[in-house]
C-alpha cells in the first residue's frame, strides 16, 4: 500500500503531508523565503496523490475555499463520475456530471450534481476548456460564476484543483518512483499558467 504521509524535500521546498480522515493536508515551505508557504488539501487515488494548494501569505481576510476534484468518464463518455473534497472537509464527496451535447470530446458544458454525507446535494453548471496541455474549468450557479479551476488529464481521468474566484490555486499530482518509495515525483500547474512543471522530492527519514 502506498503511504504518502510524511516529510519530503526538494532543493528548495520542504513538503509535509498528513492524512486527515478520508483526505490529506499538506504544507509547502520555501527553504529560501520563510514567508512563502502554501497550504493544501487532496485525496489519494492509490498511485497518485492529487493536491490543491494556495499561497497562505497572500492578503486574504479569510481562508479561501479550495479543493480537488477527479472526473472519470463513465457510460457513453457523455457522463463523468466525480470524487472531491475541500479544505474544510475530511470526507470524500461524490457526484455525476452530464454533458449538454453528444460530442465525444471531454471539453464542453456539463450539468453536475455533487453529493456530500448528511448534506443536501448541489447542482451547478461546469465548463471544461482545453488548453495546450492542460484544462481550465469554471463553475456557475445560475448566471454567476462561483469557482474556477485548473486540471490535467492522466490515465483518462481529469485531476482538478479549484477554488474561490479571488485566489489562484495550484494543482499538484504526486506519485512515487515504482522502485523507490522514498522518491516522490510532482507534476504541478497553476491557475494562471498553462505550463506544467516537474519536481522530485526525497523522503526525510527520522
Q: In which order are the strands of the major sheet placed?
A: 1-2-3-4-5-14-15-16
Percent range for β-strand residues: over 45%
Which structural class do the helices and strands define? Answer: mainly beta
Number of strands: 16
Shape estimate: globular
Given as residue ranges, the uncertain stretches (5+ residues, pLDDT < 50) are none
Helix content: under 10%
Reading the helices and strands in chain order gives EEEEEEEEEEEEEEEE
Specify the oligomeric state: single chain
Number of helices: 0
Largest sheet: 8 strands, antiparallel, barrel
Please report the distance between the alpha carbons of the first and last residues: 20 Å
Give average pLDDT, whole number.
Answer: 89
Radius of gyration: 17 Å
Describe it.
The protein contains no helices and 16 strands. With 206 residues, it is an all-beta fold. The strands form two sheets. An eight-stranded antiparallel β-barrel has the order 1-2-3-4-5-14-15-16. It has an eight-stranded antiparallel β-barrel with strand order 6-7-8-9-10-11-12-13. The two termini are 20 Å apart.
How would you sum up this structure in a few lines?
This protein has strands spanning 6-9, 13-20, 23-30, 37-44, 49-55, 66-74, 79-86, 93-99, 108-115, 122-130, 135-141, 144-154, 157-164, 170-177, 180-190, 197-203. The protein is mostly beta strands and 206 residues long.
Keywords:
single chain; 206 residues; mainly beta; 8-stranded antiparallel β-barrel; 16 strands
Give the topology, please:
Layout: E1 6-9, E2 13-20, E3 23-30, E4 37-44, E5 49-55, E6 66-74, E7 79-86, E8 93-99, E9 108-115, E10 122-130, E11 135-141, E12 144-154, E13 157-164, E14 170-177, E15 180-190, E16 197-203
Antiparallel strand pairs: 1-2, 1-16, 2-3, 3-4, 4-5, 5-14, 6-7, 6-13, 7-8, 8-9, 9-10, 10-11, 11-12, 12-13, 14-15, 15-16
Amino acid at each position: 500500500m502506498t503511504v504518502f504521509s510524511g516529510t519530503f524535500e526538494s532543493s528548495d521546498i520542504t513538503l509535509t503531508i498528513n492524512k486527515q480522515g478520508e483526505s490529506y493536508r499538506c504544507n509547502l515551505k520555501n527553504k529560501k523565503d520563510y514567508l512563502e508557504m502554501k497550504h493544501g488539501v487532496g485525496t489519494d487515488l492509490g498511485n497518485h496523490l492529487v493536491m490543491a494548494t494556495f499561497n497562505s501569505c497572500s492578503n486574504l481576510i479569510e481562508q479561501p475555499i479550495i479543493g480537488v476534484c477527479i472526473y472519470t468518464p463513465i457510460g457513453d463518455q457523455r457522463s463523468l463520475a466525480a470524487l472531491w473534497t475541500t479544505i474544510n472537509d475530511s470526507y470524500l464527496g461524490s457526484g455525476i456530471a452530464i454533458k449538454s451535447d453528444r460530442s465525444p470530446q471531454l471539453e464542453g458544458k456539463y450539468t453536475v450534481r455533487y453529493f456530500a454525507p448528511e448534506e443536501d446535494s448541489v447542482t451547478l453548471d461546469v465548463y471544461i476548456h482545453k488548453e495546450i496541455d492542460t484544462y481550465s474549468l469554471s463553475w456557475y450557479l445560475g448566471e454567476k460564476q462561483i469557482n474556477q479551476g485548473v486540471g490535467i488529464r492522466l490515465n483518462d481521468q481529469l485531476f482538478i484543483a479549484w477554488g474561490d474566484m479571488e485566489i489562484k490555486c495550484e494543482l499538484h499530482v504526486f506519485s512515487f518512483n515504482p522502485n523507490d518509495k522514498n522518491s516522490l515525483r510532482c507534476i504541478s500547474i497553476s491557475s494562471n499558467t498553462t505550463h506544467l512543471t516537474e519536481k522530485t522530492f526525497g523522503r526525510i527519514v527520522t
